[in-house]
Specification:
Two copies of one chain form a homodimer.
Chain A: H1 7-44, H2 53-74, H3 86-91, H4 101-114, H5 122-139, H6 144-163, H7 166-175, E1 178-179, H8 187-203, H9 221-258, H10 265-277, H11 290-297, H12 306-319, H13 328-341, H14 349-364, H15 368-379, H16 384-397, E2 408-409
Parallel strand pairs in A: 1-2
Helix pairs in contact in A: 1-4, 1-5, 1-6, 1-8, 2-4, 2-10, 4-5, 5-6, 6-7, 6-8, 7-8, 7-15, 9-12, 9-13, 9-14, 9-16, 10-12, 11-13, 12-13, 13-14, 14-15, 14-16, 15-16
Chain lengths: 414, 414
């Protein structure tokens, strides 16, 4: 009888123990870092909805300029030449990042969101996670393969901490690294780090809202087709969002090149455009826009074109060179859109908002599995059938574009 | 300003509509096929626990011989030369399968399980799904790429119908095709087909049990470490299971070669070994063993070595050439093991059984994402944090072995 092969399970046990230690350490450190950022953010963001229009407008211009100065001069002294994108760091830089990212990006995001720039809070957390994990990898003298995995693990921890959905956050961090693939070897580190970061953030008092959506448990094939329709709609909205973002980036890039502008002037110009826009666009769509998202999830009637205002403001904010996250805007766009169109399909607006929220994430971020899990973690297991069809349909509709320009295609979708 | 590129979203919309039609058709057809099989199965299986020992023993021998005859002569006239493994059909045969599989494998499984052979009910359903989908692909004259995807979609539909967890089933069908990768382009077809097949099976009266496990919502880091420990234990058990299976296959293969046995005699021999074993092993571990799995999920005390009995009986059943599924045994092994060891970690036995059930699937089938979703669909969203850590830990421990010998490694785990 052939010998039992005992070596592999022992190697794997060692792998598990090694990653348990590394990713709990990383998760804890990242959890603390993200908690500090999120507390600062919640203290500074949100005041902008209530101030007089004139102050809003001035803040946007000042914020643009401050962002421009910080991002232009912040990296000046960094000679590593590394990109600060976590996706590039994992795929091309063998897990290395400029450590400076740790403070530059979060401070820029605080300025952007505090001054009313329309953006999200995830980017900074993933940057905090990635740069701390890169730092840990350097201090521990890990080899490039381990550094890469540790960096992905830091990104997962950052998302878990900011979303408040540890498993979906962890898988989002793995799934966003490429289009069309989940690297299963990143799963264990990511989930351990994600759960740890979430526990630490909860312990440190970061608030995570709960939503109670009434999903009818008597799910039918017709209902499924309706959720697929919402998914198609959300995929189209995500497509509009990504297009607007790219067009805005190009437009401001051309302005800079054409008139040889001093770089910090470009976001200042973006601030001016935003300031003019808020004269017509409701201020609900400034900053994180969490209040309007929550109203959508509570079933309030949403305007049909609300999603477009949000997409436009975010495109100008991020396209002109403000820095901020790109996932909260997807939540807002999806919730507002789903809430607005649900009743046309005979669905409850709150249900439409919930399904829309995750479908836009599945689509614009190319992260369908994370989005399905996010739906489950936010809205409960009764939502599984509702969100799954919508997420995969939306994921297909957007094709191979993405809010993350660095995302590479691992597998074609069609 | 650059032109908007409208072509891709339209292509994607066409893809969505095309797959909506193809996979709803496939899902409905597969749902009907699996329902017929499952009704026949539930009518014939399970009587074996109650009959006298002598009858049990004779049935096992007769069942082995009948299986041998059927599998040896059933494919005799098939000249296509194609393998009937869905994994091979997708990866190497461009979506082609011998259509004969549609009845040969289910009938063999009915004989195996009806006579007390220890196996599962998923294999036949995935074979029904794959062969029906291959048939649809041939009738519609689809190109090889579409045929492949349609076949995967049929497999997803089969798993969704037999598990009663449509999303987990659909993703299991995609995830089991290779180690370390989920092909995202299979997701939409798989989920649509899975949901459709599940709805059809439910409509046709296939019973799906519900489990109510009390997961404590006050999850802590210590609790997480305990679930990881259960995961490690389950990974080790899965390793034992896969090893026993391989050793049994080799042993019976050598016997056949050494003594130049007429092939149908080999499973008959397996039946004799099983018949001798049931004199010492409790008959709980024969057939599908659903009753003992349910007792474990209801929190009854389980024997420490129960998982080993099940693994041994299944290894001899399948290794000697009976035909049957390979997933229900993973459920049983996991639930019995988790239920037995939970109290050593201070966890409720039912909770340990639930976590163990999915962890062994994550591991032995190399399907961690499907296993996490299965936990959620079977036990509710409160189980998410409990099952996630266990599933990914178990998935690592087993290394690169698998209950599916055809599974190829897409990404190394360590």
């Amino acid at each position: 009888m052939p010998r039992l092969r005992l070596a592999e399970p022992l190697v794997m046990l060692a792998t598990v123990v090694q990653w348990l230690a590394l990713s709990m350490l990383t998760g804890a450190v990242v959890g603390v870092g993200c908690s500090v950022f999120l507390h600062l953010l919640f203290a500074t963001e949100g005041h902008v909805y209530a101030v007089p229009l004139g102050v809003q407008m001035s803040l946007l211009v000042v914020g643009g300029f401050a962002n421009g100065l910080l991002l232009h001069y912040g990296y000046r002294l960094s000679r590593s030449g590394y990109s600060d994108s976590p996706i590039v760091a994992v795929n091309e830089q063998r897990g290395r990042m400029p450590f400076r990212t740790l403070w530059v990006k979060p401070v820029a995001a605080l300025i952007t969101l505090g001054c009313g720039g329309s953006a999200g809070k995830e980017g900074p957390c993933s940057h905090i996670g990635a740069s701390l994990a890169a730092g840990i990898g350097r201090v521990l003298h890990l080899n490039p393969e381990l550094r890469k995995r540790l960096l992905a693990c830091g990104v997962s921890a950052g998302f878990a901490s900011v979303f408040g959905t540890p498993i979906a956050g962890a898988i989002y961090g793995v799934e966003m690294l490429a289009i069309g693939r989940i690297r299963h070897d990143f799963l264990f580190p990511g989930i351990v780090a994600g759960v740890t970061a979430f526990q630490v953030s909860k312990y440190l008092g970061v608030p995570y809202p709960h939503y109670h959506i009434a999903f009818i448990s008597d799910f039918t094939e017709l209902l499924f087709l309706k959720t697929v329709l919402i998914g198609i709609l959300c995929g189209a909205a995500a497509w509009v969002f990504v297009e607007l973002l790219q067009q805005a980036r190009r437009l401001f890039g051309r302005l800079r090149d054409r008139y040889v502008l001093w770089p910090p002037l470009v976001p200042l110009l973006g601030g001016v455009v935003l300031a003019l826009l808020v004269m017509v666009v409701p201020s609900d769509y400034l900053g994180l826009s969490l209040p309007i998202m929550e109203r959508a999830l509570h079933g309030e009637t949403m305007p049909y074109l609300g999603f477009l205002w949000k997409a436009l403001l975010v495109a100008i904010t991020l396209g002109s060179g403000f820095y901020g996250g790109i996932v909260t805007p997807q939540f807002v766009i999806g919730a507002v859109l789903g809430g607005a169109f649900a009743h046309l399909l005979g669905l409850a607006p709150a249900l439409g908002a919930a399904v829309g929220l995750v479908a836009v994430v599945a689509s614009a971020s190319n992260a369908p599995i994370a989005a399905i899990l996010m739906g489950i973690e936010l809205f409960g297991a009764d939502s599984t059938l509702y969100v799954a069809g919508a997420c995969v349909a939306a994921y297909l509709i957007i094709g191979h574009r993405s809010v993350y320009p660095a995302q590479q295609i691992a597998f074609s979708k069609s």
